[in-house]
Amino acid sequence: MKKWRSSFIRRKPDIALLSVTLFCVLWVTVISTLSFTRNAKIGYVHSAEMLEKYPAAIAAREKLEKQMVQWQENINVLEAEINRFRENLNQHAAEFSATQLAVKNDTLRIKRENYLRYRQAIQDKKAELNETLMAPVLAEINGHLNDFGEKNGYKIIFGTLSGGNILFAQDAVNLTDDFLAYVNDKLN
After folding, report:
1. What is the pTM of this model?
2. How far apart are CA 183 and CA 188, in angstroms?
3. What are the sequence ranges of the domains in the chain?
4. Secondary structure (H, E, C), 103-122
């Protein structure tokens, strides 16, 4: 019992020091927050709308869509081939021996599996190409946003999506159109 009391008594100054330190940290945080927000110029951009209208994003989407058309044509060819094979198999099934029918059904199954693998590979390639095309666009947007924010004296510019973090804001703090106009002026 003595050992526990002497340990606690030795720790009392540590607790007092910790309490004073915690109070100071909280005080500095409150003062910093108040001074930051007093005259802070804050706004947001609607990210989806910005990406919809941003010229480089439009070009990246067009490039992705063009590639998707080619890939979809390949998928359509594979689908047609499978459908023809299946129709031929159904029409002539009575003419095949059990072994031949099993081989044909196996071939059809393999064609379907290959088709599904190809479709999945296309989805993976689409995601990869989208990321490859959009990464420099997003970097460019971030650079322009930094310039826009510094030029116009903003302390914070938020990005928001529909149903995102900003549930209400006055129209005056929506900078989407102003930012897009700034970018278009800069690019032209």
Report:
1. 0.66
2. 9
3. 1-35, 40-187
4. HHHHHHHHHHHHHHHHHHHH
